Amino acid sequence: MLVGRRASDLVVIGGVVLAVLYALRPDAPAGQVISAVAGLGTVAGQLAGLWLNRPADRLPWVLLVLASMSFLGGMAFRPWAVEQTGVLSFTADFFALTGYALASLALVVMLRRRVGVQRHAVVDGIIVALGAGLIATEFLALPAARVGDRPDLVSLMAGLYPLWDIVILLLVLNLGFSTAVRLASFRFLALAIVCLFIGDTGYAVIGARGELTGSALLDLPFLVGFSMLAAATLHPSMAEMAHIRQRPVQAWSAVRLSLMVPALAAPLVVMLSVNGNSSDNLALTLATGGLLAALVFRSVSAVRSNADIQRGLVFRATHDPLTGLPNRDLLTQEVGEMLAAGRPDGLWLLYLDLDGFKLVNDHWGHEVGDLLLIEVSQRLSRLTRDRTVCARIAGDEFVIADHGQAADAEAMAARIQEELARPIELPGIELVAVASIGIAPLTDQRNAESLLRDADLAMYRAKAEGRGRARVFDAAMRQTVRERVEIELALRQAVQRNQLWLSYQPLVETRTGRVVGAEALIRWTHPVRGPISPVEFIPVAEETGLIDQIGSFVLEESLRQMALWRDEGLLPETFYMSVNASARQLRDHSLRRKIADGLRVYRLGADRLNLEITESILIGDNAQVMDVLSGLRGLGIGLSVDDFGTGYSSLSYLSRFPVTTVKIDRAFVTGLGVDPGDEAIVRAVVAMSAALHLGVIAEGVETEQQRDALIGLDVARGQGWLWGKAVGHAEFAEKHLRPEQAGADGTPWTPPVQQHRGLGVTRP
Hints:
The chain crosses the membrane at residues 7-24, 30-52, 59-81, 87-109, 121-141, 161-181, 188-206, 212-234, 255-276. Residues 484-740 form the EAL domain. Keywords: Membrane, Transmembrane, Transmembrane helix. The strands form four sheets. This protein has an eight-stranded mixed β-barrel with strand order 8-9-11-12-13-14-15-16, surrounded by five helices. A five-stranded mixed beta sheet has the order 2-3-1-6-7, with helices on both faces. Strands 4-5 form a two-stranded antiparallel ribbon. It is an alpha/beta fold. The chain has 26 helices and 18 strands. It is elongated and about 125 Å long. The chain has three domains: 2-122 and 150-252; 328-474, Reverse transcriptase/Diguanylate cyclase domain (Alpha-Beta Plaits), CATH 3.30.70; 500-756, TIM Barrel (Alpha-Beta Barrel). A hairpin with a 3-residue loop joins strand 9 and strand 10. The protein starts with a helix and ends with a strand.
């Protein structure tokens, strides 16, 4: 690229030097030699630029090379042609006009391919060209055509050159007005056109006086223009002309007005100068009419463009950018208008939420998720009538509103479920969309927001009851919401006032019943309502973010309690604490540091702690969770998959993630000794875990029959009411950690050590 820049600069310098030499020796033969060197050098420079820069679109540059060759031919034949008569006398003009045609064609190709036709740029260029054309016609072309002592064709040729320059000027102005960045190559090209325009103007001036030839110094602008053409092709930026960034619609800036105001003043100048000749009046009338038409068109176009922009802004403010459906604001407005209409046939809303949409985004990426949303929106639109409102109000949430009764809404919900059940073909994957739908018929609600809240509540009730369900709102759901809000407020106070506490349930060896650990379980006793189940307040904590503080409290309190038991001499050597970890905690890269700090403060080994995680956390290619889990395993902490078998049980994630234990869900333990199917599932889990070198714990063990079945299936550890419920720390120590509670030989049970492949870390 540096070579091209230097070459273009050298060509310009060389062109100026040749022009100076030509000015000193304009007459033949020195002038002819200099002109030939300039012409041949221009063509050679253009060919070298094409070879060096290799533009993606070569056609306009090839046309410019051919134009230069034609101009060179005109220069070569000019001395001979002036001595000829008849058609041969126009040989040089034929080459010159061919050069103009080729240069114009090159600019047209460049304009259309790089920028495209833009109305504002075209109109502004026409205004300037009309003004300049009127001046050129009145003071150059028409006087040349009126010279009466020469053939008409000669006069026509003399007046044609300035008009060709106006055409090229129009094209250059359009290219300049339309491009946001003026590249060096474009500047050289524009200067070359200006030089040609100046040179032709000089010849047009003498042509208006009836002269065909004049001083050789009139050719000086052409020599400089040729060097500019070569520089434009040699400069590396010529390859970027294929990627010129378009300029948006521009106001009449100072630069643009400096070109347009003189053009608009041209009719006045001509009017004051003409002598009343009919041809003068005709040219003046045509040019003035053209300028007025261009100005009107430009004004109308500006108004229309502004209106289009305003409509676009309104549309973007009221519609979803991905699907084009109305957004929440427009939905609220239109539902409000439907309510105001007060039609007797009623009104209903459907609130639709796609089940498992987050898994689609996490596993296949947001691009696939967006395509799924677009397809769902199109299917919903096809199901609705013209007067039905269909909107997307959030990520995967849609709302449909229409006049009718609850039965009509339920029928629509059924059609939606049926439509979404059809497979959706996406690039490289086939999906089936499942939606939870809430239905809110118009009852005592008289505004759009309250009706929307009712539909939202019904949707959450449908989602809580299972995937792909639809539920109609009832007033009891509002009470549920009030209770949830009350729980949230009370839970915040409980966290701030340290009203939460832990209970501990023993983890035992199934064959001997010896305690090998405990699971720490969060408990909350409300000062008025009494004990509140974790099933009720944990989801609230997760939704509000309180789970972070609660999780930190559980970890801290578990480690502190083990340290107290150790200091009291009650902690068996292999005893460990199992703590539930939330999804938010496992996306926190500082979790490893926090746990390491806690173990150091309480002087506990990493093998004293086990984190229990749910299966859903492991689904998808979640690199962040993988990093956190790997860091925890590197610390030596055990990792258990809780409630195994109830979610997305898969060998693939068990082999990818560094888990050490699986906990068989109580749903399968309950059927042991009764349901052969449950026994087969447990046997499969045990076999799979053995193959992967993972430990197994069965939870929810309540009967001796279940325990015996687990022993027969080689499940070494268990948890459940058979061995004890979750109790406070003092009662747990009294029941399970006192010396008299140890085995017959006075020593606690030591679980077998397992090696987790690839990590080099052992834990019981």
